[in-house]
Design goal:
By secondary structure, the chain is an alpha/beta fold. The protein contains nine helices and nine strands. The protein has a single domain, classed as TIM Barrel (Alpha-Beta Barrel).
Length: about 280
């Protein structure tokens, strides 16, 4: 089934496809691959494309989208493109410590609202926000637009159930990155952390449903009402991931996956823990 037919309505009236293609790749992967695999993802049925200034591939992703529009595969209005703006990437001092940029989150949100009003973005949301930070925006005097989504790390080992419930109560969509457990880049992820897709419960459910552990992990999120990003630079797996709409997990399956939660954050960004806006010190 084409994923463009599976969407969630956002609190601003726009629609977001519930399955997205994550374009991040480790530095050793040539940037040209971002264009190649974004094209493949669109051909496979993905209509939600996720990128960021941090990924250093937005030009390649944009060219891929443009080429698929030019060849008639899609129209621009078919594509939901997500980005995260930024400037210098992780500047450091002479001791290699990250230099923090202290910016008021509410002031930043006001700038985002201006972007929406100027037509530079159709919808605006946040990423890696905890409940306290979301409430800061929601309770801001003069708020014009609520965040439509909060993109966070979310997978069976970190199921974010409390944050999900809070977001649902505020009509904010939770979007899951690292939904398959992360590609485990050495500079970000503890190499001793468990490999999600090798989990016995996921493997058993994959065998039961004649699917892959990755599809089980993706389907789990969709049935919880989470928009899920599937990141892969492998053609077979990209095409395989859109099969997530072809089967259902039972309530018993869902409970079994719920039980895997161990509050394990692959991307804990401990090097940023001293930043006043570090989000991961709170419970959720």
């Amino acid at each position: 089934m084409d994923s463009k037919h599976q969407c969630v309505k956002l609190n601003d009236g726009h629609f977001m496809p519930v399955l997205g293609f994550g374009t991040y790749a480790p530095p050793e992967v040539p940037r040209s691959k971002a264009a190649e695999f974004t094209k493949l993802a669109i051909e496979a049925g993905f209509r939600h494309i996720d990128s960021a200034h941090l990924y250093n591939n937005e030009e390649q992703v944009g060219l891929a989208i443009r080429s698929k529009i030019a060849d008639g595969s899609v129209k621009r209005e078919d594509i939901f493109y997500t980005s995260k703006p930024g400037e210098e990437l992780s500047p450091t001092d002479e001791n290699a410590k990250v230099i923090f940029d202290i910016v008021d989150l509410c002031t930043t949100w006001e700038a985002m609202e201006k972007c929406k009003e100027a037509g530079l973005a159709k919808s605006i949301g946040v990423s890696n926000f905890n409940r306290r930070q979301l409430e800061m925006i929601l309770n801001k005097p003069g708020l014009k637009y609520k965040p439509v989504c909060n993109q966070v790390e979310c997978h069976p080992y970190l199921n974010q159930s409390k944050l999900l419930d809070f977001c649902k109560s505020k009509d904010i969509v939770l979007v899951a990155y690292s939904a398959l457990g992360s590609q485990r880049p050495k500079q970000w992820v503890d190499q001793n952390s468990p490999v999600l897709l090798e989990d016995p419960v996921l493997c058993a459910l994959a065998k039961k449903h004649k699917r892959t552990p990755a599809l089980i992990a993706l389907r789990y999120q969709l049935q919880r009402g989470v928009v899920v990003l599937a990141k892969s630079y492998n053609e077979q797996r990209i095409r395989e991931n859109v099969q997530v709409f072809e089967f259902q997990l039972t309530p018993e399956d869902m409970k079994a996956i719920d039980s895997l939660d161990r509050n394990l954050r692959y991307f804990n960004s401990v090097g940023l823990a001293s930043h006043p806006n570090y989000p991961f010190a709170d419970e959720y």
